[in-house]
Amino acid sequence: MRLDHESYYTSYARLLLSFGLAFRPRQRLLVEIPAEAAALAERIEEEARRTGASSVVVMPTDDLRDAAQLLEDPATFRQMAAQRKQALEAALEGDAVSLAFLSPVPALDRILRQEQKATFFRYKNELRNVVRRAIRSRNIHWCYAYCPNSSWAQTLFPDRPSDEALSLLWDQTLEFCFLKQEDPLDAWLSYYDGLYRKTRWLNSLGLKEIRFYNGAGTDLTVGVNSRCIWEGGLDCSRYDGTYFQCNLPSFEICTTTDRRRAEGHVAASKPLFVNGGMIQGLSLDFRNGKAVNAHAEAGEPLLSELLARDEGSAFLGEVAFVEQDTPIARSGLVFLNTLLDENAACHLALGSGFPGNIRGIDPTDAAQLRENGVNQSCQHVDFMFGTEDLCADGRCENGDVVPLFRNGKFV
Q1: How far is the CA of 192 from the CAs of 255, 256, 272, in angstroms?
Q2: 256: CB partners within 8 A, 6+ apart
Q3: What separation in angstroms does the CA of 241 have from each of 30, 197, 244, 252, 284?
Q4: In terms of pLDDT, which residue wins out, 394 or 94?
Q5: C-alpha distances out from residue 80 to 35, 220, 276, 280, Å
Q6: Are the C-beta atoms of 16 and 48 separated by less than 8 Å?
Q7: Which of 60, 157, 160, 63 minimizes the C-alpha distance to 104?
Q8: C-alpha pair distances (Å), 367 with each of 87, 355, 362
Q9: Mean pLDDT of 73-97
Q10: Which of 24, 109, 127, 293 is the most exposed, fewest CB within 10 Å of its CB?
């Protein structure tokens, strides 16, 4: 039976290539996509070749297969992991761009023991680090998107038959990516034009710190460099097809934080699904930029492991505003997928900051990054703390205090 969502594959492929990647003739395309989505992969390859791709490398992913290999033969798993990393590095050589689909498999939490999950998700994170290194060193275009899979859909809609659950999750995908609009690209450009006006305002303020507070106990002041670049949206009058959107869908305005300056308490507003496990009821206390007290109602061992991964793991790398009326927020669902869940609420990220988000420094110079407070880490883990009553005030470089956010929306 042909599923209704398959009729949107061509539209999705074109949106990802044109708007997500700003793909150009004679470029190489790397696509990491779940093996289950072979039909979508074929459509993307067809569109890329039609556009004039010099080559297309499709790397199917199958987390359940890889987890089974880890259980059966850890040595063979390690060999596979090394080979996949090498293949990823080779695929990103030259004039390449990266399109990677994030498609969680919640069943891994039941299949793997804690130490096996740590091994498995270190492997997954190192694959992401291959792309991150290419971004930092060669400024490649990249886009993280998502596509549903059966295991994920069944977890979100456990009372529905498998096919129906998958269709429901695809319906959400079509809604969140504006694929049901007559012209998805035009819909994104219209939305992003409004978002850009808020971004431009933030960039005009010369902010040095932001205080967030709400009725759930969050009272946290986060430092930012006064020369930081807030990113979000697009000035549509300047759109010429060269702009690329590194996350799709995305409704956030974000920047890098000053790792040396975070003070106070933050309470997460949504569960965090990370490394195959769930952290619920997360709260953190920060002193001099570092998380010095961490608590979770469930998943505390996983939280402790996250904070101890490396020296930068307990410091912040990102702060992001997301209003409470985005399509994802309106759905009322927790998707167990950071790409989606972070676009339903204001969020922070533990770990790596954004090297390119401070004016006047070399993003490849580690010394300059340290001097300007850009956090460096092997991971970047977003957690959501936005609520309907979240407020934020910004302190500017000149000492002025400016209201930024009231009751989950910009002022």
Answers
A1: 17, 20, 27
A2: 224, 225, 228, 317, 318, 353, 354, 355, 357, 358, 374, 375
A3: 20, 20, 8, 21, 41
A4: 394
A5: 16, 43, 20, 33
A6: no
A7: 63
A8: 31, 11, 9
A9: 95
A10: 293
Beta bridge partners of 284: 266, 294
Q: What is the dihedral of CA 242, 246, 248, 251, to 10 degrees?
A: -100
The answer, yes or no, to whether residue 3 has pLDDT greater than 80, is: no
Q: For residue 75, how far is the Cα from the chain centroid?
A: 31
Name which of 20, 284, 59 is nearest 141 in CA terms: 20
Each residue's pLDDT tens digit, 278-325: 899 999 999 999 999 999 999 999 999 999 999 999 999 999 999 999
Q: How crowded is residue 261: how many other Cβ atoms within 10 Å of its Cβ?
A: 18
Q: What is the distance between the alpha carbons of residues 132 and 410, in angstroms, rounded to a whole number? A: 31
Q: What distance in Å separates the CA atoms of residue 368 and residue 34, rounded to the nearest whole number?
A: 38
More confident residue, 341 or 3: 341
Pairing of strands 55-61, 262-267: unpaired
Q: Residue 20 carries which DSSP code?
A: I
Could you tell me where the beta strands, DSSP code E, fall in 272-362?
272-274, 277-279, 283-287, 290-295, 316-321, 347-351
Q: Which residue has the tokens 């790398």?
A: 317
Q: Which of 363, 381, 398 is nearest to 284 (CA)?
A: 381
